[in-house]
Amino acid sequence: MRYGFSLPVRGSLADHDGIVSIAQHGERLGFTSATIADHIVFPTAVASKYPYDASGNHPSTGDAIEPLSLMAFAAGRTTTLRFVTSVLILPHRNPVLAAKMIATIDVLSKGRVTLGVGVGWLREEFAALDAADFDRRGAVSDEYLAIYKKLWSPGPVEHHGTYYSFGPLRCEPLPVQRPHPPIWVGGHSKAALRRTARFADGWHPLGTVATAELRPPEFSAMRDDLKRMTEAEGRDYADITIAFVARLHETAQPIEGAGRMPFSGSAAQLIEDVETYRKLGVSHLSFDFRAATLGRTLERMDWFAREVMPHTT
């Protein structure tokens, strides 16, 4: 099993010292990757419902470090750690500029970029950015992925699509990773599974929150759907990476009862959960270790690296 952790993009830890400390500490402990969330602005009047909290409210009060900028910065302060956008909202950015930025980071980091992608949920943010039509964001995202792949191929290339067009051009240097940085699709909807099957190298769901409880039976059913969809696209399901994102709640004593959420409880319970999801095809697990202070965040990472990782890798 390979493990990742979240880098802060908001709050008191989302500054130079916090980001560098967490990234470098995770690298020293043997974590494989760091995940980076994506928001650019938060309009003050929001009717959209955040899909990963039962309240429907996003926890941010308006702060958000831009993820590609953060990725480039953190890559310059590390040597082996991979960086995963988790997830980059495809319609937010001009696809040609975004493809160039991602390729640049991949070149300068010596191939340490994984592109986690999604279609977004915050209609008001789309409007503020003058982004593509929110109601067609799925189709826009599919076309933008096709544009990325063209631009990451030897040129000249051109594109004449429904939502974006450009004439023959070159977009170099190309990414170090060939044919391109791995693309993981976030989400657990049928549309996300179809997008994974058609376009992606991996599936990257968040699965241990009240609004997205991908316990083993539910996860197994979705995995089987993904397998069928991938094979229907003429692709080999074995080529799909499953990178699961989980909320971690560690405790000194076991949590009893059938209602325990996976990846909560004692170290022994977490080890058992890792093995359960490994058997279901998960090869990457990412956790959010952030706490109120930097010291407590690093302590949680230490605990996991000491009590869980040696027993599951």
Notable characteristics:
9 helices, two-stranded antiparallel sheet, alpha/beta, 313 residues, 8-stranded parallel β-barrel
Oligomer: single chain
Rg (C-alpha, Å) = 19 Å
The overall number of domains is 1
Largest β-sheet summary: 8 strands, parallel, barrel
What is the CATH third-level topology name? TIM Barrel
- Shape estimate: globular
Instruction: Let me know the average pLDDT.
Output: 96
Q: How many strand units? A: 15
At CATH's second level, what is the architecture?
Answer: Alpha-Beta Barrel
SS-derived structural category: alpha/beta
CATH C-level: Alpha Beta
Reading the helices and strands in chain order gives EHEHEEHEHHEEEHEEEHEEEHEH
End-to-end Cα distance, whole Å, is 5 Å
Q: What's the total helix number? A: 9
Low-confidence parts lasting 5 or more residues at pLDDT below 50? none
Strand order of the largest sheet: 1-2-3-5-8-9-12-15
